[in-house]
Batch of 4 targets.
Target 1
Amino acid sequence: MGRQDAVREAAILLLFLALAVVMTWPLARELERAVVQPAEDPQLNSWIMAWDAHALLTEPAHLFQGNIFYPYPYALAYSEHLLGSAVLGLPFQLLWRNAIAVHNLLVLLSFALSGFGAYLLGRRLSGSRAAGLIAGLVFAFCPYKMGQLHHFQNLSAQWMPFALLFLERVVRRGRRRDMFLLGLFIVLQGLSSVYYTLFLAV
């Protein structure tokens, strides 16, 4: 990929990020202090990712020993662990120390990465950048996902199109690099949402 192509792809990623801000407005304006209503799941998921970050940095062997539901052990196992998203958000947790802000930022990133991944897959399969953009828009902002704003795990489908992209490349070329990236994106999807991992397996 030449420099001009890389700049163009970066611009498309920024376009999807801008669209994520517009489509979820006023979430970006309230990034540090508010969550989508009903608030129960966003608050739970904010805690999960903050706990993941804390445990990974202090006692990774005790990751599932969440500091809630005492005296019951393995509290993190009672719900999605969101580890893939927590790792993505770890630098922001360290920077902000604000679990709500990191949760909201990751919501925006889930839309942007979903759109960009579907764009790359659509462009690869069709040979058309316009078709890729349409694929990205449909996958990122379909009514189902827009209706799940308060369920972060149901937004975290961003690694599926990347996995399918590299699956196509493995089938076509059989290169080890593509096999590695296929495995990486499957693992990232598995660590981000159990639901979508099952869909991806099918």
Note: The two ends are 32 Å apart (CA to CA).
Target 2
Amino acid sequence: MNFIEELKWRGMLHDSTPEIEAHLESKKCIGYIGFDPTAPSMTIGNYVQIMLLRLFQLSGHQPIVLMGGATGRIGDPSGKDKERELKSFDELDSNLNFQMEQVKKFLDFEGEHKAIIINNLDFYKDMNVLDFLRDVGKTLTVNYMSSKDSVKNRMDTGLSFTEFSYQLLQAYDFQCLFRDFNCSIQMGGSDQWGNITSGTEFIRRNLNQKAYAVTTPLLTKADGKKFGKSEQGNIWLDSKLTSPYKFYQFWINADDKDLLNFFKYFTLKSKAEFEEIWETNKDNPQLLKRILAEEL
């Protein structure tokens, strides 16, 4: 499987840094996605990124799941129009432990391409504020950071120094993973492009090395509402919060206009298998929904 070609036919490639295809073809690569534990469970919104890691692994590369034990304590301003309410450390730790177990259901943690889970709190727990300001804060200018959409879009409504510093943390995460694990690729949603490319800049400036970025489009529904929610709220990847019946019904009740995108994003069938199923049943959307719902 060619990772970039796989993303293209699925409509899952939004942007990437130059020369990434040659980099992926040159060797087995290591890439990561970060997940902040701000909710009690992952949702199917998170599952978009889990699918990205799964496809990366199936393409012969090694995925890292970076759990945000540190970044979750700060709050990512990306895509938010106001300051996040900070969670308690106990709540974040509980969420993180639960989500780590969830991820283990979706990726292969054995064999040559085995997935790795890392907590980014390990990068900061022995660092004091002066070390952070000298070693991390000096890498990027305020002008550079302010040019990113996650910051620029909040200038009118207000942005605390806490959330402003999030970009530095995510960038330093990438540098640590590159240094310690030879992780050369960071992936995420398109709203993360600014944070991710800040990380490639950290690696260029501080390690004199080259790193790469890949983002997916933000998946929305035909009615313009955020993907991952129903009329009853979030669709969780946990049977105690969303029953298997409700999870199944989310896909069955999907708008016909969303079906093609949903199928391409979430099936693990090959392109040839998908095209055969789609062409055979394209006039019967309810059957296609059942096929997808049963697979998921």
Note: Residues 166-181 form the longest helix (16 residues).
Target 3
Amino acid sequence: HGYKNLCRLITRTKLRDGKPGKPENPIATADDFAELAGGLVCLTGGEEGPLARIFSENYGPSAREATCRHLEQLRHIFGNKNVYVELQRHHRRKEEVRNQAQIEIARSLRLPLLATNGVSHATQEKRELRDVLTCVKHKTTIFKAGRLLSYNAECHLKSSSEMKQLFADLPEAFAQTGELAARLSFTLEDLGYEFPHYPVPDDETEMSFLR
């Protein structure tokens, strides 16, 4: 059920792309989610998520009030047990200031914390490759890219022990990742869909013929 709704959301937003007066990268609206939230779990996002945007546009009490309003809206749409306040740590002062504010707000609203890492490359060494691909995407050079490039190499895929150490002061945020994973029982094997068979020569399989 959740996977079907996720596919519908993606299709709906993609169909808006390219229409006159519509953004190039359209996003799902609150109305879309209200209609298709069944079976889905909501994570509040990292640096590019809505809470980060709220904190970048507001300060002090106004940031807290706007965050609380947004979280209440998400809770109304997805349900009390399906909204997780996401925390990421990439050794950036601004990010940690936001984290501490979000921790206080989540606890006041009794919403669970979730430790994630905003992964954009597999290992620390792949950070340079990621920066090169970013420059290709934006048609610029390493020397001119500026803030388009990675702040550091911390957005790599971290092991369980690394994440546990990173969030040693917030064991509940680390533990919730395992509990959430246990909740998500969907696999692609449940789709019940089989791709059509492609005709191949007698001495070939589809994979060998493709290769």
Note: The first strand starts at residue 42 and ends at 43.
Target 4
Amino acid sequence: MIFRSLRHRIAALFVGLLALVMTLILVLVTRSNEHIVAEEMGRELTAGSYIFTQLVGQNQHQLEIAATLLASDFGFREAIATQDRPTIRSVLRNHGQRIGAKVMMVVSPDGQVIAETQHSGATSRPFPFPDMLAAAELSGKNADFKAMKDGDLYQVVLVPIQAPRLIAWVAMGFPVDD
């Protein structure tokens, strides 16, 4: 009834074509926007990943320098050579507080923890990360991310203590946070 006149038919056809074209344009723009957003997110993630990797590497280098500085301290090496555990723990605690290390350990060449800041017991225990120790023995030092007993993630740095031969390893753990 409404479409009996030619004018109504033309108007309905024009409105239908206009709605079809507008829907097609809307679909194309939406898909194009989704594609652009996905590409931009990929670029942002790539850039963020690169920056994060650079920051982790830079942080690792600074931690290795701090650990190497401690390992080269004559008094510290002497305390390790004489097995003076209270002095070793005191040096570990003081150095750890200065550089922000939450976990510090001295590990014997055979993989036993000589002293640490977490526990003050006199009994030694195996180093909790033997894979790091094995890698450090091959390359001279090692750094990795490890989960500690408290469930938190730490960046752990392991460097040798030489006097002039290897007498121990110093391990420093720095919490990974925001």
Note: The CA atoms of residues 84 and 134 lie 26 Å apart.
